[in-house]
Amino acid sequence: MSPPSPSDDPDKVGEALNAQRFRMLEDIAKELAGDVVFPTYFDVAFRLRKELQNPDAPIARIAAVVGAEPLIAAKLLHLANSVMYSPSGTPAKDLGAAITRLGIETVRTTALAIAMGQLMRSKDMVPFADLTRALWDHSLKTAAATRLLARHHTKINPDEALLAGLVHDLGGFYMLYRAAQYPELRARPDTVKYLIVQWHESIGVTLLNAIGLPEEIVEATVDHDQPRPTPPTLRHLADVVYVGNALAGAHFEWLFQDIDPDAGELGVIRERYGHLLEDIETQAKEMHAALA
Predict the structure, then answer these.
(1) Integer Cα distance of 88 and 121 in angstroms
(2) Among residues 161, 186, 130, which one has the least CA distance to residue 245?
């Protein structure tokens, strides 16, 4: 679908502005029912995910595929040599060594993370800079939290948990990307904020299905911001995403709301899993540095 005409009035208010917001939702619904349109760098990430579907592919083959994308190759090396993946400080000296250390799923996830980071930094997103930065920081923190929760409290694959944490708010990124195509919404970025809170979960589920992520990843993101009793044990990936999202601040953090993290169910979660908070912060910073 083509963007709105530059002649659209950017000074719409009241009902006219509400109509513009609903037009965006209608346009998103139509797009998700057909071919999802993402920036070119997402095409690279999706192509890599498809080409690297075989977990038993030789490292040399994987390195050749990844090496064709210099930006992704460089960031994989950086990530492999971070404290998160190399606590001993032993360097991975080439791409093959980096891939061996990280594992194929982390390679595929990193390509998607790089695409999300590039979307955040695109010039079209400048009006939403504060929102995208907070959403990106929250996504990385959630990814770090889900990885650590899976590793220390479940038998779930930590790399799978990291991917689920990373993409749990992809619907929010996508809504910001689409909102940037409407002059009225670019002029009033705050008007988009609460629209995202209301719709990013359902749009995200449809989007993740449309781009072909595994069913278990998609299902783990359903209703991740909806308060519910804290599970006594983390049995499913959805439990890990819910708790990881809460430890990372849930949507309150990127809405810049002052919420008591020790109250209610958030307090229960922090009491039970608060011992991971320092490591979550450390690993989120490591990912941020590696993907910058």
Answers:
(1) 32
(2) 161
